[in-house]
Amino acid sequence: MEKEKKVIASFEAGIKLGALFHQFIGAPVSEKNAEILEKAIESCVKLQPYVVSAEVRIDREKLKGFSAFGYTSLSPEMIRARVVVEFEGERVEAVLEWDEKLRYPLMKLL
Asked: What are the boundaries of each domain within the chain?
């Protein structure tokens, strides 16, 4: 039963990160609103069942010099997210971060 709870907690963590990724990639972002967007994403993730904590960071270096209009769209390379999920006493931590070698936004349990 404990293994089943761990599997459910792990699955839920993946669902949270997948939802975060697919809901917010493409959002308008600049150096001026990056912190606001980070907090908004965290707030949305924290509303979901079993979430204990969520943290989102947007790489400010990747926001520089994109357009004459001062903003760009949030892309997979810019985001790092961490979520902690607890299901019936089983707690897992997972991250979403860009893997340069794979050129892919990889999600993994810590």
From this structure: 2-109
Q: From first to last of its 110 residues, what are the pLDDT tens digits of the chain?
A: 778 999 999 999 999 999 999 999 999 999 999 999 999 999 999 999 999 999 999 999 988 877 788 899 999 999 999 999 999 999 999 999 999 999 999 999 99
Residues composing the chain: 110
**What burial class does residue 104 get, using C-beta atoms within 10 Å of its C-beta: 0-12 exposed, 13-18 middle, 19+ buried?**
exposed
Q: What is the pTM of this model?
A: 0.91
CATH hierarchy code of domain 2-109: 3.30.1300.20
Pairwise CA distance, residues 92 & 16, whole Å: 12
